[in-house]
Description:
The complex is a heterodimer. Chain A is an alpha/beta fold. Chain A has helices spanning about 60-70, 105-115, 155-165, 170-175, 190-205, 210-230, 245-255, 270-285; strands at about 10-15, 25-30, 35-45, 45-55, 85, 100, 120-125, 130-135, 140-145, 235-240. Helix content of chain A is about 35%, strand content about 20%. In chain A, the strands form 2 sheets. A 6-stranded mixed sheet of chain A has the order 1-4-3-2-5-6. Chain A has a 4-stranded mixed sheet with strand order 9-8-7-10, with helices on both faces. Chain B has 3 helices and 5 strands; from the N terminus they run E-E-H-E-E-H-H-E. The model of chain B has no long low-confidence stretch (mean pLDDT about 90). Chain B has one domain (about 1-95): Alpha-Beta Plaits (2-Layer Sandwich). Chain B has helices spanning about 30, 65, 80-85; strands at about 1-10, 10-20, 40, 50-55, 90-95. Classes of the chains: A alpha/beta, B alpha+beta. The structure holds iron/sulfur cluster (2 copies). One iron/sulfur cluster binds next to loops of chain B.
Amino acid sequence: MAQEFWRWKEYTWRAPDISWTDGKIITGGVDVGSVSTQAVVMVDGEIYAYANMRTGSDSPDSARKAMNWALQDSDLTLDKIHYIVGTGYGRVNVPFAHKTITEIACHARGANYLYGPSVRTVLDMGGQDCKAISCDERGKVTAFVMNDKCAAGTGRGMEVFADLMQVPIEQLGELSLQVDKEPEPVSSTCVVFAKSEAVGLLRKGWRKNAVLAAYCNAMAHRVCTLLERISIQKDFAITGGIAKNVGVVTRLEKELGVQAIKPTFDTQIAGAVGAALLGKAIAEQEKK
Amino acid sequence: MIANFGYTDGSGEYYIMLDTDKCNGCGACVPACRAHILELRDNEYAPLAATKIVVVKDANRKRIKYDCAPCKPASAARALRCVTACKPGAIAHSW
Ligand code: SF4
Ligand code: SF4
């Protein structure tokens, strides 16, 4: 079989030191995106387990698979989770969710937890769209803008480029930084046009690195115009899959003149973490 | 909270900005809009509050430049029906 360069690694994680049986409240968050699905389980507001995998053609099935995977090797079962929130583009397709919440609210809450309460601007660069969110010290949304008009600047666009360049997706960003001089950004922001533009550049004899640099540059620039609408304030955090691409992140920081906080966890789980935390708050509210 | 519904493309920035702190969910703007692009919904952006706000319908967010065009003749500035209908002044347009 030919190597699938776009295929990123799926994985699962469990906290070694948390016992769910000691927990007072167990909540779950499932973020079904267009490209990836994450399931997070939290015990008293601490991450107990999570899984991150590709979204299959059947969303309800993806949600269930991700949750099952997060809970594998644990004797915690779905019915013991008190409250589950579905979020993301496919949020209505989480059959076991008690409630659905827009990913905007979930990403703000998740970033507040994962990066700390000093975060005021969250940029979520997901599979199929980009969102810029302002939030307060409790992770409440104070403004947002979202761009879902096309797939450029998103995970899907990166997958297309990994495939075109025959470079594993995890290495794209690093490679794009290996240029002596920063090339002009590709002029198209639409991924279909950007791809044909890239093919043209390769034919002209451009090296892969330079073409990737031109693409990452264009993506970074495009996202900057989105951020201008909500006026970026520090601290600044990036969530979603593209946060792992140093080629885009470095260029973005340069154009904005602001450093993003360096994550110490998987940036793709922010939405699901926020969903689980909002689920906890709702469950506690309902009890009162 | 300011919700920006819309998009940026090569020709400009097209956003309807709703101030959810001002919007009281009265719904007056919904029938005022002849393009039928507004609707009342639970305020999903503040899931713990359980209030209603007006939003631009999902399907219209990518084409408001065209949907709103009849309200915005290029020749003269005119008061927008949605903005006039909203007593608390929650609605603004970027273009
Ligand atoms: S400008 Fe006109 S078409 Fe656009 S939202 Fe307002 S009333 Fe509707
Ligand atoms: S008229 Fe104004 S306050 Fe009433 S629902 Fe519309 S935006 Fe909200």
